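Support request from a user on the community tier.

User writes: "When I paste my structure tokens into the form, the page sometimes reloads and wipes my input. The last time it worked, I copied everything first. Here is what I submitted, just in case something in the input itself triggers the reload:"
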């Protein structure tokens, strides 16, 4: 699924694909923001780790859990 994160004072958003479910992503963000943690920690499909400062976090966009189609669709 596609994840996009807005960061304050940054013209671009952070975008990556993750195998986490939407509920897992929402829980990770809510837990980090609710506990006062300094960073939100998420990983992508390739194992890269993304740390976003909670003070600069502006929005989270979660794409649908849809598999990519291969071939032609009639």
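"...and here is what came back when it finally went through:"
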């Amino acid at each position: 699924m596609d994840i996009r994160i807005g960061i304050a004072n940054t013209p671009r958003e952070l975008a990556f694909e993750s195998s986490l479910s939407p509920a897992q992503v929402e829980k990770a963000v809510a837990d980090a923001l609710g506990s006062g943690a300094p960073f939100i920690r998420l990983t992508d499909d390739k194992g890269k780790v993304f740390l976003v400062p909670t003070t600069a976090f502006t929005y989270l966009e979660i794409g649908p859990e849809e598999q990519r189609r291969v071939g032609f669709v009639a």
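Agent notes: The reload is a front-end session timeout and is unrelated to the input. The chain has a mean pLDDT of 89. The first strand starts at residue 2 and ends at 7. Escalated to web team.
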